[in-house]
Design a protein that fits this description.
This protein has 264 residues and is α+β, with helices and mostly antiparallel strands. It has seven helices and twelve strands. It folds into two domains: 93 residues, D-amino Acid Aminotransferase, Chain A, domain 1 (2-Layer Sandwich), CATH 3.30.470.10; 154 residues, D-amino Acid Aminotransferase, subunit A, domain 2 (D-amino Acid Aminotransferase, Chain A, domain 2), CATH 3.20.10. Strands 4, 5, 6, 7, 8, 9, 10, 11 and 12 form a nine-stranded mixed β-sheet that branches.
Length: 264
C-alpha cells in the first residue's frame, strides 16, 4: 500500500468483513450492495466498485478455505488537505484470516450493559461501513474493562442504535423490532437477512422503530447479530435477565442451515 493514503490520513474509505465458508462468501451480494452504497455516499467515481469482485475472486483463488475476509477500499493518494483528489485512484486491500467456524459458532447468552460512549448523529454517513471507527474502539475498551460480552450503544439523543459490533433486535409478542438507522449506525447484512427472509420464515412481523435503552429492559427477548457471529441471544442487561431465547436460537438454527446451503 503506497503512502500517503487518504484511508490512513482521514479514514476516507469503507470496509466489509465477510465470513468465508468452504471458499464461498455467503450473501456476498448484500456486502457488495452496501459497499456500493457507501462509495456513492462518499462520492467515489462510479467505476470504483467495478474491480471488487475480481479482487475477491483472486484472493479466494478457488481454495475451499474457511475464514474471514476483510475488504478495504480507500480513496487512495492525494495532495495534503481534506479536499478529495479528482480523479481519485482508489486503493483496494484484501486480507484473509483463517478460522474453524466463521459465521456459525455456538454462542451462549451474552452479558450486555449500557455503554458510556455515545454515537454521533450524522445522516450522511448513516448505514455505511466507513473507516472511522473510533467510537467503537473506545466502546470496546470500556467493554473489556468491565468484563462484558457486548455493550448497548445509544446516540447523543439517547436513542438505542446497536451494540458495539452488531445490530440489535427486540421481541415484543409476535413483533420483532430493530432500531431505525437514519442518523447513525450500520445497516448490517445479517440485519437485512432477518428483515428480508428469516423473520417472514418464522411468521414474525419485523419493524424498524425508534427505541431507547428502557425498551431493551422491557422486551420479551433480545439478541444481536453480525456477519461473523450470526445471532447471539442477550441473557442479561443490567438487572434484567432472560432465560428463554426461543427466537434467537431459532434464527441461529435457520442461519446455519442457510450457510450450509451457501457452502454446498
Amino acid at each position: 500500500m503506497p503512502l500517503p493514503d487518504r484511508g490512513l490520513d482521514y479514514g476516507d474509505g469503507l470496509f466489509e468483513t465477510m465470513p468465508i465458508i468452504d471458499g464461498n462468501i455467503p450473501w456476498l451480494s448484500y456486502h457488495l450492495e452496501r459497499l456500493q452504497d457507501g462509495l456513492l455516499k462518499l462520492g467515489f467515481h462510479s467505476e470504483a466498485h467495478s474491480p471488487v469482485r475480481d479482487y475477491i475472486r483472486t484472493a479466494l483463488d478457488d481454495r475451499r478455505l474457511t475464514g474471514v475476509m476483510r475488504l478495504t477500499v480507500t480513496r487512495g493518494a492525494g495532495m495534503r488537505g481534506y479536499a478529495p483528489p479528482e480523479p481519485a485512484r482508489p486503493t483496494y486491500i484484501v486480507q484473509i484470516s483463517c478460522a474453524d467456524s466463521a459465521g456459525q459458532p455456538e454462542l451462549p447468552p451474552a452479558h450486555v450493559d449500557l455503554c458510556s460512549v455515545t454515537l454521533a448523529r450524522q445522516p450522511l454517513l448513516a448505514g455505511i461501513k466507513h473507516l472511522n471507527r473510533l467510537e467503537q474502539v473506545l466502546a470496546a475498551k470500556e467493554r473489556q474493562q468491565k468484563g462484558l460480552d457486548e455493550m448497548l450503544m445509544t446516540d447523543t439523543s439517547g436513542s438505542a442504535v446497536s451494540v458495539i459490533s452488531g445490530n440489535l433486535f427486540l421481541l415484543n409478542g409476535n413483533q420483532l423490532l430493530t432500531p431505525t438507522l437514519t442518523d447513525c449506525g450500520i445497516l448490517g447484512t445479517r440485519r437485512r437477512l432477518v428483515l428480508d427472509e428469516l423473520a417472514p420464515t418464522l411468521g414474525l412481523d419485523c419493524l424498524q422503530v425508534a427505541m431507547t435503552a428502557a425498551d431493551l429492559e422491557s422486551a420479551d427477548e433480545a439478541f444481536y447479530c453480525n456477519s461473523l457471529r450470526g445471532y447471539q441471544p442477550i441473557g442479561r442487561y443490567g438487572d434484567r435477565r432472560w432465560r428463554r431465547h426461543r427466537i434467537a436460537l431459532r434464527l441461529q438454527e435457520l442461519y446455519r442451515e442457510r450457510l450450509l446451503t451457501c457452502a454446498a
